[in-house]
Predict the structure.
Amino acid sequence: MLHTFRFLLLTVIIGSLFLNTLCDFSEKRQDFTFFNSPETKNLIYFDNAATTQKPHIVIQSLVDFYEHYCANIHRGDYELSRHATEQFEQARIKVARFVNAQKEEIIFTKGSTDGINFIASTWAMTELKDGDEILVTELEHNSNILPWLQVSKKTGAVVKIIPVLPQGELDMKELEHLLTTKTKLVALTHCSNAIGMVTDLSDIIARAHAKGARVLIDAAQSAPCRMVDVQELNPDFLVFSGHKLCGPTGIGVLYIKKELTGTLIPYQWGGGMVDIVHDFEHVELNDVPEKFEAGTPAIAQAIALGAAIDYVSTLDKELIKNHLANLCSRMIDGLENIGHVRILGSTEQLKKNGHVVSFIVENLPTEIVSKYLDQHGICVRTNKHCAHLLAHRLGYDSSIRASFYIYNTIEEVDLFINTLREFMNTQYAALAGQVKRTSIDRAHHLWGDVS
Ligand code: PLP
């Protein structure tokens, strides 16, 4: 009897684990015009790390604003404006819940780049001085490097770089060296947009805080795909973009820890932020967040981001993560069976929690491959994916990046693999070798075996 019970229990546990890992969101494709309209329905869209498609309800939310309650916010003394204001502020509450923040800690921006520039132009410009240090990593998108180089030029603070190991993990020994009491900011990505490697942040954030440094997290790639909880992670600043999360372009989020919002000077100055003007030189500003949102914000986009968050939040984040990892796993298995292909990053990690598979075809410029894929209705990104430091470190000029989101399916991955295999079988031999010095040669030179 006991044995039977144990067996049943085990079956239920294994069954639910199996279901969890085999989650499938293909029915969600119905929610996207893109996957149902004649011009685009047959495309395989694998460029989600660049931007995702938008469900009807997000598009409808934009249309609703413009058709039914288009008015400026926070200032109008009439019902329409009050309604728009309420919807805008509701969106802020949705964003705050999404990352477990308070609504006063959420600033609407244009996107991740804008959020990072905000902190670089405000906190960093006032707090940093000659000899201070800013730590970034080799995994960063250029948006999380260039603003710090500007800060360096203007303040004399030095930007130092945490290197990555051959498989794209951060070199934690180097981090130990580089993180000192001179470090005033650690600015790092949660997940690499170029190769999909996820960084375990908790330990790094705790270590940075122990040295007295502030931490900025670039969650552009992670917020759409996994749980991002600011209470748990405890960063000082965190950014992400709406358009990578089924939301519209032109809207993003900057989280600023509450204890810091009081001390920060605004990024931009203008209408919407002013509470009382005593005289020409003495102005009292509104409270946060309005204090940081000068001018008319992207009202429709913020409201539509709220709709996108509602949409994505109907899905369990753990299931999203598992689904994306399953797609990576299938892709990696398929690629490993095709000769002359090298996958970037740790395949072991990507199979567990990736949403991006980035690879190189030996002796061949990536554009030739992506052109072939494009001719077969497959959208992928090539080149350095705005992560030049990483490309230099890993020694590739250009990689082919397939990046997934909820609506992608195992069947699409299989089609991708079959198309690539066909290309390799029919064209590779004739085309390869046209390139004399390959990216892979350089990768070997730098790292030994990069796979
Ligand atoms: N950081 C990462 C990791 C990204 O992937 C991107 C965009 O691809 C950005 C920052 C910049 O985002 P945005 O262009 O939306 O400002």
